[in-house]
Structure formats: C-alpha cells, structure tokens
Amino acid sequence: MKNSIIITYIVFITAVLSACNSKNKEADSPIPQNAITDSLIATLETTPVEISNIANETKLNGIIEPDETKEANVFALVSGKVISVNAELGDYVKKGAALATLKSAEIAGATNDISVSSANVDNAKKYMESQEELFKGNLITSQELVSAQMEYKKAISEFNKSKQIAAITGGANETYTLRAPLGGHIIEKNITPGSEVRSDNNAALFSIADLSNVWVIASVYESDINSIRVGDTVSISTLANVGKKHKGVIDKIYNVLDPANRTMKVRVSLRNTGNELKPGMFASVLVKGKPLGQTTVIPSGAVVINNSKYYVVLKKDQHTLITAEVKIIKRIDNKTFVSGLNPGQEVVTTSQVFLFEALNAK
C-alpha cells in the first residue's frame, strides 16, 4: 500500500515538472513568423525610399559677441577720484556723451601749466620787444637780441605743449570727464562714484559696442574641421527666439585649435535688426555646405540596430515583409542617408522592431 502511494506521488510530481518545463519553453521561444498577419501588414505605415542629395550639414554651438570693429574700451588718462557716473550697464549712449566725471590733481596741474606758460609767453614777448628797442638805439649787441628772441620762441613752445597735453587728457581746471568715443550700448562697467582711478589701471572703466552688427563665434570640433569652409551658409537660432532663423555666412576661420577642448573658432557676422541678439547669448549654428552627392534617404526612425548592424523592414507586397541590411552614410535629424536600398521600396515606419524580431525568429 505504501509503495503504491509513493509511486502515485512520484508520477504526480513528474507531471507537474513536465508541465512547468513546457510553459518555460513556450515563454522562451521566439516570436513566431505567423504572428505577422495580412491584417497587421495592412495597418502598417510605410514610406517610399527616395533619392536625395546628401546634405552636408554640421551643427555647431556658438555665442553672440560684439563686432570688435565697432567696440571701444574707455580708460582714464589721468588719476583721480570719481565724483559722478552718468551711465549704467546696458544703457545706450551717443558719441561724445559724458560717462563719468573725475576730480584730478593731474588736471589741476595741467591747467596751472597752461596759465604759467601763457604768462611766460607774455613776459618773454615784452622782454623781446624791449630788447629790440635797445638794439635800435645801439644799446645792446645783436647777440643779446637773438637771445631774447630765442627765449620768446621757447616760451611759445612750452605754452603749445601744455595746451596739447590738456587737449589729450580733455580736462579743465581740476575736472576730467570721460566721454563715449562712439555711439552704442555699454556692455561693461567698472566704475562707481567715490572710487579712486589710476591712469595705469589695465581694466577698462567702460566698454561700449555698436550692436547694430554682431558676431557669432562658433566652435568646430576637430573631426568636423574639414567640413567647414569660408562662405558656407549658416542658419542660426537662439533660445530667446526659438522659431526665428538668422541667415548668414562664415566669413572667417580662426585656424588655431584651442588645446583645452580641441575646437577651432569660426565667425559669422550678422545684422542685428531690432537688437534681438544680445552679447553673451548662446546660439545654435547649422552650417550648410555643398551637397556630397546623391543617395537613398529614409526616415531615421525606420532604422533597426541589431548586433552593431543596421536594418530596415520592407513591405514587399500586401502579404510579405522582408528585412534588409543598410549602411548609414549620414544622419541629420529625422533623415538618414543610406546605401543598400532601391528607390521606390516601401520602408516600414511603425512597429519595425517587433516585425524585425518576428521575421528573424528561428
């Protein structure tokens, strides 16, 4: 009796294990090809393979900068104390506008030099005239007259020199005024009321830029250098105006690599209509070079990657799907230029991963 019970138990366990193994095998089995029915094929979206020029496009990152030919740094030519500041960062100023006023001992000294040298001219002139009268009366020698004339000329020279110095510094009395050398926006300011300014300071007190034209300085990775040429057209967009494209051309290539990030700079000059482009803005630059020839093109989403190779699923007819290996030549956004296909073939663009696995199931 006990042996019968044991045998029955063993048979039961064996049956259970057999059923479990059968289910596991079913779960591990590949997707059957007959899962692709005609009704499924009929619902698939496809796109015909087309012939197109291989777009020679390169995406770069750039930054908006002022046009250096329309930018000026303002320095103080004398030392002094700032008593007023008339312009702030971002302000637009006209050419010649007063930016700041300093009280300077150097200007006071220059003004005094003009007064002293002017008085010396008057004295030297009077002395020379008196010597001329004495010479006419034979009371002095010609050498003494020439000496008086030389002193007068020397006094005039010193007076002219003091006026030139004052003209260069631009001050009067003890006041020195910083003025805008050109019209534009103040893009840098390093001065505050009450601060002391030295003439040997290397930092500009103001930087002014005419922003009617700006530069876009973009970085080109070393791998893309040979794809960039002067004269290539570009399309530029910024985060501030995502939907707007600014058209331009590359007008300069800086043929030096930055050793820190292995990139080379290129420049695009743009007309800044409406002052939309601000210095410091990031820019996306799409460079459009000459086409690289023609080949077949398909939607990027149609490509399936398997074992480091690229495939597509083709709809041969209303009842048949096949897979085809392709070679990717270039990928730009939602378009992929490939070889290995013929124009007119229908590429499946929906459920292609599922279909590829089903077609390759063994």
Structural class: alpha+beta
In round numbers, the mean pLDDT is: 84
* Rough outline: rod-shaped
Largest sheet features: 8 strands, antiparallel
The percentage helix is 25-40%
The number of strands is 22
What radius of gyration results from the CA coordinates? Answer: 42 Å
Question: N-to-C SSE series?
Answer: HHEEEEEEEHHEEEEEEEEEEEEEEEH
Low-confidence runs of at least 5 consecutive residues: 1-33
> How big a fraction of the residues is strand?
35-45%
Distance between the termini: 49 Å
| Total DSSP helices | 5
In terms of topology, how is this protein built?
Blueprint: H1 2-28, H2 38-43, E1 46-48, E2 50-53, E3 57-66, E4 71-74, E5 80-85, E6 92-93, E7 98-103, H3 105-136, H4 142-169, E8 175-179, E9 184-189, E10 196-197, E11 206-209, E12 213-221, E13 233-238, E14 246-258, E15 263-271, E16 282-288, E17 294-299, E18 304-306, E19 309-315, E20 321-332, E21 335-339, E22 346-348, H5 352-359
Antiparallel strand pairs: 1-22, 2-17, 3-12, 3-16, 4-11, 5-7, 5-10, 6-9, 7-8, 9-11, 12-15, 13-14, 13-16, 14-15, 17-21, 18-19, 19-20, 19-22, 20-21
Helix pairs in contact: 3-4
Describe the structure.
By secondary structure, the chain is α+β, with helices and mostly antiparallel strands. It has helices at 2-28, 38-43, 105-136, 142-169, 352-359, and strands at 46-48, 50-53, 57-66, 71-74, 80-85, 92-93, 98-103, 175-179, 184-189, 196-197, 206-209, 213-221, 233-238, 246-258, 263-271, 282-288, 294-299, 304-306, 309-315, 321-332, 335-339, 346-348. The strands form four sheets. Strands 1, 2, 17, 18, 19, 20, 21 and 22 form an eight-stranded antiparallel sheet that branches. A six-stranded antiparallel barrel has the order 3-12-15-14-13-16. A hairpin with a 7-residue loop joins β13 and β14. α3 runs antiparallel to α4.
